[in-house]
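Chain A, query sequence.
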Amino acid sequence: MAESQIGKFYPVKPRPKILSKKPSSTPESKFWRSFTTHQLSNLIFPITSIEFSPNPPHHIAATYSASLTVYNPQSFAPALRIAKFPDVAYSASFRLDGRLIAAGGESGVVQIFDVNLEKKMENPLRQLRGHGRAVHLVRYSKFDKLHLFSGGDDCVVRYWDVVSGSQVLSFDGHKDYVRCGAASPANSDFFATGSYDHTVKLWDSRVSTGGSVLEILHGNPVEDVVFLPSGGLIATAGGNSVKIWDVIGGGRLVYALESHNKTVTSICVGKFGNEVVEDEQNRLLSVSLDGYMKAFDYSALKVTHTMRYPMPLLSIAVSPDCSTRAIGTSNGVIYFGKGKKKEETLDSDAGGLMGFGSIEEPEKRVLRPTNYRYFQRGQNEKASEGDYVIKKAKKLKGAKHNKLLKKFRHGEALVAALNTTDPQEIVEVMYELVARRKLLKCVSNLDKDELGLLLRFLEKYSTMPTYSGFLLQLTNKVLQLRGGDVMDSDVLKKHVQNLKRSILEEIHIQQFLQEIQGIISPLLRIVAKR
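Chain A, predicted structure.
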């Protein structure tokens, strides 16, 4: 009778926890996540560079240890392995027709090889000698088959004639190791190089004086440089930042992206989508030693997608048609990503040429009340289209303490909650009893065994930051109300002693943390002023 007079009863539920953000469901994030990952993990040595061939089927070249390997873009199996380097190989670069590939090395020699997967010629066609130390940069021009440029630890950038194997120009502008570079997509005579002297220099092969045309100060040792597709913007990576510069505007800084936590090791330009895309759909991809790959929309100046890998990343490349992605790590693992293709379907014209028309599946006959079988349907019969389905509400099985609270048996509800293992449920039942002004009365009516359950719970969870504010106040009330019973029982007394010990330990920890805070706070103020 009492239940029918009160309003609807709402079961006690734990307060919702703050959950981490779900992965973004934007079309772009779905596109990048749609790549099927193939892991190649038997290389052991760091992957120093990755490059895609400009021509289909866009073979993949990777340098690691003292070898250069060309992989099949479909099966990701090695198609050609060149081990003609006396030491570590760096910076593989395809010629614009994809028939030749050049690479530098720790020995200081630039070697050029024929990419003939049938003959598999491993001996170099040309060896360009001139650098005094390791060569970390080798790049072919975007439009010129006859020349390439290189840079190394001797701080010199050299421009080579591939046919004769001789040096055409030498540029001496850098003051530290030259580690990266890129050819301009707008002019075959322009190229840029990045150095550990924190600068990026643009060179013109038509200028015989050997001086740079433009100098950009990145602010950190430069790890990678890439021209954006228009040729008027250039992106530089160094430290934990990626910066975009306006080359036409005299090297003006357009935007600085600092979304990585560690050094950005490699950047490249990829396309969002498999079809022909416009400039606003190009994305700047970056990888870092923090294990993250980030896609940056430089037209909207925002990060559009982030992916996490389990190890530091050193190199990244994307095929020209954006169907394949390759990422190299410091632990000798290459993560190949293959984009999903749309399923090809036969059109009606092709079916007509084969002599077969399209076959339509016959529609299932809908039963109507005029048919005898309509009245013979069982409960397992599926509803037809247009039928009105009445779903039976599922009966939820409530917890025992919720049933007792519904019947106003507050003491039994508290004991039932204390017998569970979820502290959040127990605390929520206590909050409900506080709202009903019955908690202290329930504590007063507990027998010694039930009081032991309560003290054991308080002993275990009173010092937890999530519950300490409420449970410490409850502990004081329990000791005031049931102090005599506690003194008469050795078991209850032991619970109280353990509770006191844990509280004293927590106080000592908090005091120690306050001392540390007092030491760090002045240092943080000094750093903030700089």
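DSSP finds ten helices and 28 strands in the chain. The chain has a mean pLDDT of 86.
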